[in-house]
Amino acid sequence: MPVKVLMVCLGNICRSPLAEGILQSKLPSDKFTVDSAGTGGWHVGELPDKRSIATARDRGLDITHQRARQFKVSDFTEFDHIFVMDTSNLKDVLKLAPNDKAKTKVSLMMDALHPGESINVPDPYYGGPEGFDNVYDMLNEACQIVANKLINDTAR
Ligand code: 4NP
Q1: For the chain, how many structural domains are there in total?
Q2: For a pocket test of ligand 1, which of 123, 132, 138 has the largest count of ligand atoms closer than 8 A to its C-beta?
Q3: What is the DSSP code (8-state) at residue 49?
Q4: What is the CATH number of the domain that holds 103?
Q5: pLDDT at 128 over 90
Q6: Which of 36, 38, 56, 88 is deepest in the core (most CB within 10 A)?
Q7: DSSP 3-state of 66
Q8: Helix, strand or coil for residue 70?
């Protein structure tokens, strides 16, 4: 059984598609599956934002197979780990948790790098392309820590 990881943001078109692509690229696909979802439903069925696609492509990642979907309560049983991009996503996801076990699966993405500092991956939707580069760099660093930890955990 693969370990299943879910990346969550608001729209599932900017940040979490990048997080999905980046983490996937750092993990062996026979042992891990990575998916993403949004707490909001406005963009369901859409491709990632053009700027996320371009930023990923610049770094050698293709994320054009992804389609946006909304986070659902069954994701708490489907996934082993749920990483949220900001404290607003954290609040929204925890509100949907059916029990305490579900809550323990949820963590703030940047806590991987800076535990307890409540650092958000900023929403780049209304800004320019540099916002997407910044998001990519933050996610790349945090996902490396997460990938190392997941690989280490499964080896034990
Ligand atoms: P994301 O960015 O949460 O990183 O996918 C957003 C994309 C769209 C919207 C909000 C955030 N929106 O309100 O449509």
Answers
A1: 1
A2: 123
A3: P
A4: 3.40.50.2300
A5: no
A6: 36
A7: coil
A8: strand
